[in-house]
Amino acid sequence: MTNTRLAVWSGPRNVSTSLMRSFANRGDCKVLDEPFYGAYLHRSNKLHPLREEIIESMSTSYEEVSNICSTSYFNNKVLYQKQMAHHIFSDVDLSFLDNLHNVFLIRKPEYVVKSFNEKVEDFGLDDIGIRQQVFLFEYLLTRNEVPPLVISSSDLLNYPRASLTDICERAGIKFREEMLSWPEGPHPDDGIWGPVWYGNTYESSCFIKEHLTKPDLTYYQKSVVEEAYPYYERLKSFVKVQK
């Protein structure tokens, strides 16, 4: 059996948990939920909910986690990795990415900032991952003739079949109908932070068509959004338009 390692790099509040659910429901897929989270919290000293419990439950070694993601044995056709770009510091050895199929999931910064700030009070640009997404994207762009696939969260919600098919094709696997829905509630592969962050996904069983209202932002939130937009636009320029 040929094994496929698929890493989807996003920031927080990017509809990434729903995408993880989609792949978990394939039947041939093992999921790694934010494998660098413990290492990130340990190094950054960020005061996230359940900080100490997360650190105690996971490896805090970037080298060890990189090996788990890129070379460790797994008894499934697909190893799906829900990866948070802001968990990766600029001095981390990125060579492990060369063993992965890497995809990027982006969302308009105003919605990311509004949602993230509801969970974490003290934050800045580097807490929402978009700058680190560009850093990782540019690394991969220099090493491959074909740019990494970039998917918009809006397209994922509004055109899930087309978006999922694009991701599967890029990873060299077949799309499955089972990916369009999943059971409600928590999943055994969720990190222990699931009850804090995954409330909306717990209540969902499929991708729900997007109905956006312009978020009401504070002055500080607007300043972070303004900082984020050049990075967002860089990645957005690579998004395939879905129909």
Description:
By secondary structure, the protein is α/β, with parallel strands linked by helices. The chain contains eleven helices and five strands. The protein has helices at 16-24, 37-44, 51-57, 62-70, 109-117, 130-143, 153-158, 160-171, 194-197, 199-202, 219-236; strands spanning 4-10, 29-33, 78-84, 101-106, 149-152. Strands 2-3-1-4-5 form a five-stranded parallel β-sheet, with helices on both faces. Helix 2 crosses helix 3, helix 5 crosses helix 11 and helix 6 packs parallel to helix 11. The chain starts with a strand and ends in a 7-residue tail after the last helix.
Keywords:
five-stranded parallel β-sheet; globular
Fold blueprint:
Blueprint: E1 4-10, H1 16-24, E2 29-33, H2 37-44, H3 51-57, H4 62-70, E3 78-84, E4 101-106, H5 109-117, H6 130-143, E5 149-152, H7 153-158, H8 160-171, H9 194-197, H10 199-202, H11 219-236
Shape: globular
Uncertain spans:
none
Q: Give the SSE order as H and E letters.
A: EHEHHHEEHHEHHHHH
> Main sheet: which strands, in order across?
2-3-1-4-5
Structural class: alpha/beta
Can you give me a brief rundown of this structure?
This protein is of the alpha/beta class and 243 residues long. Helix content is 41%, strand content 12%.
